[in-house]
Amino acid sequence: MPLKSKQPRIAPLKPPFDAETAEALDRLGPPIALFRVWARRPELAKGVAGWGRYYFSRESALTVRQRELVIDRTTALCGADYEWGVHIATFAEKAGLREEQIRSLAAGSPDDVCWDAGDRAILKAVDELHVTHDLADGTWADLETAVGEDGVLDLLLVCGWYHAISFTVRALRLPLEPGTARPDSP
Asked: Which pLDDT does position 185 carry in this prediction?
């Protein structure tokens, strides 16, 4: 459901940034609107950056593709157009996502023919977590086969984190970043 407000409820900071804010933003990455809202509280921004540093590193048990399947599907299910757009624009190509897969992530099903068994297991788990906040034994077993035990733990946390991010960007009423699109856009 599109959000009605055109203005963010908490305005992202604008340059020039003081030294503490600039340091916090450097840890987060490109100064997108969400990061500039977090940077209003540099300690919050630093804490978030520490969490993200693990999940966006090679230390994570999930591959880039697996992580992005979780994030893209979660943000689509939550109607978080801002975060969906950022991740599709930034990571879809790196994750090897094809156009039909991007459409499926936005509004399709894990059973769509564009998915292999491993991708399907990830998407079914994300969908089930979104609806039931739990995983059935069969879903768990399929997911563990696809990503391993450590991958399951990382997936659970990434999925939960991106529910929180989705709540945040929706409630903040952040407009799309330049060069990004909503899940329902061609």
From this structure: 63
Residue 154 token pair: 């990382």
Quote the tokens at residue 94.
Answer: 């790196």
Distance between CA atoms of residues 159 and 149, nearest Å: 15
| Confidence (pTM) | 0.94
- Say how far apart CA 78 and CA 109 lie, in whole Å: 15
Domains and CATH numbers, the chain: 19-55 (no CATH), 64-172 (1.20.1290.10)
Q: What are the φ/ψ torsions at residue 133 (nearest 5 degrees)?
A: 65, 25
Torsion sign, CA atoms 146, 184, 8, 25: positive
CA-to-CA distance for 182 and 42, rounded, in angstroms? 29
Query: Which residues, 6+ apart, have CB-to-CB distance to 72 below 8 Å?
Result: 84, 87, 88, 92, 97, 102, 105, 106
Helices 137-172, 42-55: inter-axial angle, 10-degree rounding: 150
Chain segment 26-80, per-residue pLDDT in tens = 999 999 999 999 999 999 999 999 888 888 888 999 999 999 999 999 999 999 9
Take residue 169 and report the two structure tokens written for it.
């960007």
